[in-house]
């Protein structure tokens, strides 16, 4: 059995692998995993902000595939009606939370600011949740001043951690602190990669959508944000039927990363000789659920019992062998097909903890 922990693509990562097979079977299984991951489609999430004001354009967006997510302004006149319709479609709904920008612009009612107390931020967010039923997450409307304030975003994430909502950072400023604060409070989060309609032009929007396709192919996924402008609606109507087969349109919630508040120490990589079955755990401590939303609880690995003294005339299985953590450095450049497979195999064979085991297997 090979267990692979998901990590960002094309970065230096440490992978912990539980082995119950020979090194040859392990390498074969790893190659199959790599092949499957290479063959999987890139994922593209499209989120349309500012819902709740433009009935015509809102309805045109709602006529598009349910994989397109929508973000509703909490004090908009049609917010509840739109949320109800989107929920019936099975569509992802976000609260498009007004946050204070650095520029001087007219502000929505109940715009969050860095100077607000934690109690005021929590009250406003809870009111917004009541106005946007069925919401799964929240993203920021404007907010360059608010999202660049770590103390302000801590107040936001403290409230969201009690409401089981994820946060999508619209990234309206480069030094945003949203995801840093989300990690502190265990709030699942992700961020926008492409804006599709900074310029209200159908041609420009289609160009940005194609850029989102390229980004998703390169990085495995992309989050694109737009608005219900007439030009954006026309561009989407023409673009969606032409999405390439190697790119999958997905709800934004599928690209959200869970942020655990605490991390447990990683267990060393263990190899168990073939034919030895792990013993059933004697007891398991009941899991205490926290009030904060955390990543789903993973089932614990069955405990491996210590072998007892061999009885006369009976061959006892060998003890599991501790061989440590296998470091695999994934190249920064994008490799495909056999080049990627060979780079992974070469990294495994060069790992100092695995070399003695592989040499022993060859000699036997």
Automatic annotation (TrEMBL):
One BP term from GO? carbohydrate metabolic process
**UniProt cross-references to Pfam families, sorted A to Z:** Polysacc_deac_2
* This protein's UniProt keywords: Signal
Q: Which residues form the signal peptide?
A: 1-41
Species source reads Providencia rustigianii DSM 4541
Which protein are we looking at? Divergent polysaccharide deacetylase
Q: Where is this region: Disordered?
A: 258-317
